[in-house]
Amino acid sequence: NNNGAESRALDVPTFTWSKLKAGSNRGKSIQGSDKTCTYSSSNEGRGYDGRAVKLYVAVYDKEEQTLTLQPAAEKGQVFALDQSVKSYEPQVRHMDTTIKNMSASEKRMLLFESFGSAKKQRALKSQAA
User: Among 9, 109, 115, 129, which is most buried by a count of CB atoms within 10 Å?
Assistant: First the structure.
């Protein structure tokens, strides 16, 4: 019985795209979703040095012991998707704004208070005093 495999195959994400800037053909934004997740990404269309963004896949031939680079998106754009689960709700919502307003040293102290060794915690407390 393949009903499970068939239902998973039918639940593929659907995507829409839009231009990043109305008057330019360079750069796109994409959004998509399926039954459980949402996806989003954008691409400026240029690399850090002004060249078009390229992606290559390295193929290793064990018998010949050679490595060949194959273009994977020669005339297109590559998008790294951000994924979020629709039903996920963070357990600690009030901490979001608190953490955003903390300085880097306060965040560091909070991290070591939660996960640091006793020796590191003592050292940080003495530095703070």
Answer: 109
Q: At what angle do helices 118-128 and 104-115 cross, to 10 degrees?
A: 150
Q: Tell me, yes or no, if the pTM score tops 0.70.
A: no
Distance CA 33, CA 13 (A): 5
Query: How far apart are alpha carbons 51 and 30 in whole angstroms?
Result: 21
Say which residue the tokens 């039954």 belong to: 35
Q: The tokens 């939660």 sit on which residue?
A: 114
CA angle 6, 12, 16 (to 5 degrees): 155
Q: For residue 63, report the phi and psi dihedrals to the nearest 5 degrees.
A: -65, -45
Cα end-to-end span (Å), the chain:
68
Strand, helix or coil for residue 1: coil
Residue with tokens 């909070």: 110
The rounded distance, in Å, linking the Cα atoms of 103 and 108 is: 9
